[in-house]
Design brief:
The protein is an all-alpha fold. It has one domain. Helix content is 83%, strand content 0%. It is elongated.
Length: 132
């Protein structure tokens, strides 16, 4: 007895769009918006941080480069972590972690802590781009 093989891609193409699909699209689009926003925001904050004495040329370099480096590392790590825990779980963990660390950036008590929080935030944001 030969089993009929179903072409999965054709089956998926025939599934009508539902509220679930649009909800997922909205969630992913919202996270991608915050990704772009988070890349822009530090550049707008640098003049104010320099004015209050938190950033000089050395700390400005660290403030800009370390987070981007860890975002690249997070993008690579997302594949490995997503394979272990699942993409949906990783997406949800990233949203929670990113939100908490973004709030922590606003509560940083010195420039070094701000750079650490920002670096961790960007690591999760780098993973979010891959899972989103």
């Amino acid at each position: 007895m030969q089993l009929n093989r179903m072409d999965i891609s054709k089956r998926l193409e025939r599934i009508p769009l539902s509220k679930f699909h649009f909800g997922m699209l909205a969630a992913v689009a919202l996270m991608m918006f915050f990704d772009g926003y988070d890349l822009l925001m530090p550049r707008l904050a640098i003049p104010s941080l320099k004015q209050i004495g938190w950033l000089d040329s050395t700390t400005t370099s660290a403030f800009m480069s370390l987070p981007l480096l860890t975002a690249a590392i997070g993008s690579v790590a997302a594949g490995f972590i997503g394979d272990r825990v699942g993409r949906k779980v990783l997406f949800n963990m990233n949203v929670i972690g990113y939100s908490a660390l973004s709030a922590a950036c606003g509560l940083a008590w010195n420039p070094e802590v701000l750079i650490v929080f920002r670096t961790l935030t960007m690591f999760l944001l780098g993973m979010q781009v891959v899972t989103g």
